[in-house]
Amino acid sequence: MTKAPTDQESDPLAQQIGSELASARREKGLSVSELHRTTGISRTVLQGYEAGRYKPGARELRLLSEALDCSPNRLLFGHDEFRKRTSVDELLGDQNSAIRAARFAIVFQLLTNEEQRAVLSLLSLLVEGRAGGREQLAKQLSVVDAVVANLETRGPAAEEDLLRVAGGDDTLRKLLDPSAIAPPPPEPRKKKRDG
User: Fold this and answer.
1) For labelling alongside 133, which of 26, 27, 111, 190 has CA 20 to 30 A away?
2) How many angstroms separate the Cα of 96 from the Cα of each of 92, 176, 177?
3) What's residue 145's pLDDT?
4) What is the pLDDT of residues 63-110, one digit of tens each?
């Protein structure tokens, strides 16, 4: 059991746990005394939990969860799901990987330079192994540089090529394949007939 801060500096987690504990106890139809008999946790401490004066420790959370037939997540976070959908999930959506990547790029631009460096450091650690090492990752990222350079120099024509390539099911592979963004061959000229 951890004592929560004084009333002047109330602990939001202790308040959350207390509120959820009281709600779960009432839903189960138990009094504080009955919960005390089931868990062995004193009535005074249980009342302190519900009032947000104390936070239960791991042992107490397990006992309370078992007695109230709910998960510790419910008491800690207010829901039973193992993982609640986060704002990042909602922000990036469940679209295909190209759309998620584009949305991520926009969100990334909203970060400060320092935050961007921190995110990139974490990402590099995560993806180096999947990409086959630092050199392979650098090679794949150089393709992105080529795409951007192509867009900057060719303008609308390059955008059309990129949109054409981005269609289909295997978008990411196509975007990482440098030959996939090559401009289409010119159409053969029709000969003018003398008439």
Assistant:
1) 111
2) 10, 16, 18
3) 79
4) 999 999 988 888 888 877 665 556 666 777 766 777 777 888 888 888
- Which token pair is 61? 């959370």
Confidence bin at 1 (pLDDT 50/70/90) = low
The answer to whether the beta carbons of residues 41 and 96 sit under 8 Å apart is: no
What span, in angstroms and rounded, lies between the C-alpha atoms of 175 and 147?
A: 8
User: CA 123, 124, 127, 131 torsion: positive or negative?
Assistant: positive
**Range 161-184 average pLDDT:** 48
CATH T-level topology, domain 2-77: 434 Repressor (Amino-terminal Domain) (1.10.260)
Nearest of 62, 57, 53, 61 to residue 3 by alpha carbon: 53
Question: Where is pLDDT greater, at 184 or 23?
Answer: 23
Angle of the 58-68 helix axis to the 12-28 helix axis, nearest 10: 30
Q: Which is nearest to 96 in space by CA: 177, 148, 168? A: 168
Largest CA distance in the chain: 106
For the chain, give every residue range classified as CATH 1.10.260.40: 2-77
- pTM comes to 0.42
Please choose, from the candidates 183, 185, 121, 190, the residue with its C-alpha nearest in 3D space to the C-alpha of residue 153: 183
* Token pair in block for residue 124: 């590099």
